Amino acid sequence: MEEIVFENGVAATRESDIFNLALPDPELFLFSESDRVIKTLYYRNDSLVPSVKTIRLLLKDFGEGSDIIASKHNDYESTSRTIEYNTRWVAYSFEKKDTAYLKAETKGVLCHELTHVFQLRPKGIGNYYSNKVYWAYVEGMADAVRCLNGYFTESDRKKGGNYADGYRYTGFFFAWLTLNKDADFLRKINRSSLHVVPWSFDGAIKYALGDQYNIDMLWLEYLSDKGDITPEMAKKLENNIRYAQ
Known about the structure:
- By secondary structure, this protein is an alpha/beta fold.
- It contains 10 helices and 4 strands.
- The chain has a 4-stranded mixed β-sheet.
- Strand 3 and strand 4 (80-86) form a beta hairpin.
- The longest helix is centred in the middle third of the chain and has 20 residues, at 99-118.
- The chain is globular.
């Protein structure tokens, strides 16, 4: 990466002051965090890392009623990416005047968005807006990277749900697989985007961990390990899955 550009679209406002409290040197943070995100998603000197020369961070007000925290723009044929951060979320993150939380949340959101900058995208299943599996994988990967880089705690994990529910449901599951099954799991699941076509959760799991693994079985093991279901319930559900296969 050659350049980081920070644009403050709300200079001389309370939100701008709060953001500066959270991240006094956004350019330096984005340089170092980009390196950490790339190391989380790829092997050393991996030729698959997207060629991104410029990252632009724009601090702006998304407007009344917007529930968007931040967003990433520019397609993958461009060498530049833009991350927009909503000042309303900046203000919300400091509602309790907790500076430590403000800093962790701001860095966590930007780690998530940087993952979108550098992650590979699944093939053969439509796009982010047309296919829920695509959406769940993309957002889950970003939260997995955020989790593995220390911007989530166990209290942030959502209980129950499904591995295809995206964001923290998928993200904490992927992080658990990385910590408990294969330290390179996230790198392999990222790379599965190129090799599992059409992409699917089960196909990607088999690519990353081996044909002996099944996504539904691993999900039950994860829920049981986290205490979301009892071992007895996990065993009963496993038998149902085997019967259905």
